[in-house]
Amino acid sequence: MKWLLGFVPVAILIHYVAPDRPLLVFAASGLAIIPLAGWMGHATEHLAARLGEGIGGFLNATFGNAAEMIIAIAALRAGLHEVVKASLAGAIIGNVLLVLGASMLAGGIGRPEQKYNAAGARSQATMLTLAVIALIVPAALRATEGVAEGSLGTLSVLVSLTLLLTYALNLLFSLGTHRTLFAGEGHAEEGHAAHWSVKRSALVLAGATAAIAWMSEILVHAIQPATKSLGLSDVFVGVFVVAILGNAAEHFSAITAARKDRMDLSLSIAIGSSVQVALFVAPLLVLLSYAVGPRPMDLAFPGGPILSILLSTLITGQVSGDGRSDWLRGVQLLAVYVMLGLAFFFAPG
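Below the sequence we write its predicted structure tokens.
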């Protein structure tokens, strides 16, 4: 996989020398993200071994979402609110269906079942349900007749502040007062002497994140013209294509952890990343839009993405609530992801 690092300078070169070749830029930058995501996954494993599964998963989700945040801010500056909302919805759906499903499938191959802390998984699933409610409320207000023009913006700001406070308290719960619920099964102690130091792991994680952010920005500039030439719709591109590539780091880290029978870390990465997008990234972007965009962004997502997030949350809660996983549960999550992808693929626009 290390040889794929050669696509990093190739993507940069094509981006600046041949910007009229979006398919080449798209392919090169997408391939460049793969080995960088691998480095991020390795650093996360070492951090989890030193600091615990919960903190390791939180750090992976945070650094993994950094690229999405950078890209979203750039889109906010251009006033592309619908693109931002589609990518946020895609990130939430992709993490709980694609990433978690692929992790359960990969981890379950060759094993009758895997176990993890059910209480921690249920807590994260409940936070996702809260996020769905927060997205439904502004959409319901938008659909109400006779509502004042500024009411939706005011509601979005107040809901965003509520979500940010809730997310902060969730961190206090999961990393502080109830840390044992997310601590895992003790894998962190295995081979402790071979693990990187916290400083080295953090530096590698930060470096890989910065490189992924750069490659992701190059990729996003090319992805719309590239996918247009392939006949894909903007909605499908925003919710699925951008989300899959933007979450490459989480994909690699969660699946690698699952293969090593570290399902607590895998779930912490997959579900934790969706919780962070819904309760931290989305509301923060709403507040930032008042400073960096031509106009403020609200939290009223379109009906299709909201329904998809709701369905994803329901099936995730059902599958992950008992502390056991197997390959069939992974297949079930992936099947829902494929069906939603087909619906968006055939949807107009």
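The first helix runs from residue 7 to 17.
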